């Protein structure tokens, strides 16, 4: 008579073999994606890290190791410091405004059951436009001689304003365009988050006396939109900090560097001035800034929970 252990051994072996084959198949399926990721993302990032510690210039046949010299150079580089300040100021204007307006519009549209689909389509359409095309349209709209905004201001007897060439307001003008650009995407996410809130909660709140719009918003909507707000904040922050196309099409960093941001400065250093080593160091500083801001947002969201 066979023992239970001798009977279960072949069964266990067959189960392990089947599991091994399944895992092996999964690895083979994932391998092409991992290889592609390594070629397109990991390897270039490793090259940036390496070049940031060198004085390599584009097209040169050799380079010297300079250690932290490129990073130390930023301390006295007024252009790099201005680009960092402009980037943070730009994000400070765009991110809060985008989140507030997107949430406001989503709450208002969510109450309109009959016309909600039309608003969703209306807000989604700008997402399909590419940044260069959108930038060209805005360059015409804000043109200080032939733009419709200029014509309207002249009709109203207002003074002429150069939105994209006045150093005092150029960054604010770009921030306004960026808010319009990011608003639609954030609106769609907030609207999706609102659909997950059970209507029974609003009905229960009405029975408790919280039947006014502000009370419902403060007690139910805002707390339950916390995870959605975190996602919107992270995505909007990342997209805002990565601004580049908008700058290169509309202002090229001008006037007098007032609209120059980190990525545009990195582009100039690496591909206009051919200082790839220094440009790589700027790129790493940008990655560090994005990482720090993301961690701060995660920690602040955790404290609110």
Automatic annotation (TrEMBL):
InterPro entries: ABC_transporter_permease, MetI-like, MetI-like_sf. GO terms for biological process: transmembrane transport. Residues 84-297 form the ABC transmembrane type-1 domain. It is found in: Cell membrane. GO terms for cellular component: plasma membrane. It is a multi-pass membrane protein. PROSITE patterns: ABC_TM1 (PS50928). Keywords: Cell membrane, Membrane, Transmembrane, Transmembrane helix, Transport. The chain crosses the membrane at residues 26-53, 88-109, 121-141, 169-192, 224-250, 270-299. Belongs to the binding-protein-dependent transport system permease family. This is ABC transporter permease. It comes from Rhizobium tubonense. The lineage of its organism: Bacteria, Pseudomonadati, Pseudomonadota, Alphaproteobacteria, Hyphomicrobiales.
């Amino acid at each position: 008579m066979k023992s239970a252990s001798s009977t279960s051994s072949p069964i266990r072996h067959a189960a392990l073999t089947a599991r091994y084959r399944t895992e092996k198949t999964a690895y083979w399926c994932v391998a092409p994606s991992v290889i592609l990721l390594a070629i397109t993302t990991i390897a270039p990032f490793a090259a940036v890290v390496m070049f940031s510690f060198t004085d390599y210039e584009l097209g040169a046949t050799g380079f010297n190791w300079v250690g932290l010299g490129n990073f130390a150079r930023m301390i006295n580089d007024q252009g790099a410091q201005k680009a960092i300040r402009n980037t943070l100021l730009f994000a400070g204007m765009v991110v809060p405004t985008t989140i507030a307006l997107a949430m406001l519009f989503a709450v208002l549209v969510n109450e309109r059951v009959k016309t909600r689909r039309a608003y969703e389509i209306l807000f989604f359409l700008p997402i399909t436009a590419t940044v260069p095309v959108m930038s060209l349209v805005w360059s015409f709209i804000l043109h200080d001689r032939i733009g419709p905004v200029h014509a309207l201001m002249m009709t109203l007897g207002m003074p002429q304003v150069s939105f994209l060439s006045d150093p005092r307001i150029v960054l604010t003008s770009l921030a306004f365009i960026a808010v319009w650009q990011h608003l639609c995407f954030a609106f769609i996410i907030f609207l999706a988050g609102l659909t997950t809130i059970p209507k029974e909660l609003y009905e229960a709140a009405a029975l408790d006396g919280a039947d006014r719009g502000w009370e419902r918003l403060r007690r139910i909507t805002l707390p339950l939109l916390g995870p959605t707000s975190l996602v919107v904040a992270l995505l909007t922050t990342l997209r805002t900090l990565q601004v580049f196309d908008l700058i290169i099409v509309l202002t090229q960093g001008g006037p007098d560097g007032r609209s120059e941001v980190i990525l545009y400065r990195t582009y100039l250093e690496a591909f206009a001035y051919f200082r790839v080593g220094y440009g790589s160091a700027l790129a790493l500083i940008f990655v560090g800034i994005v990482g720090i801001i993301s961690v701060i947002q995660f920690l602040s969201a955790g404290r609110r929970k």
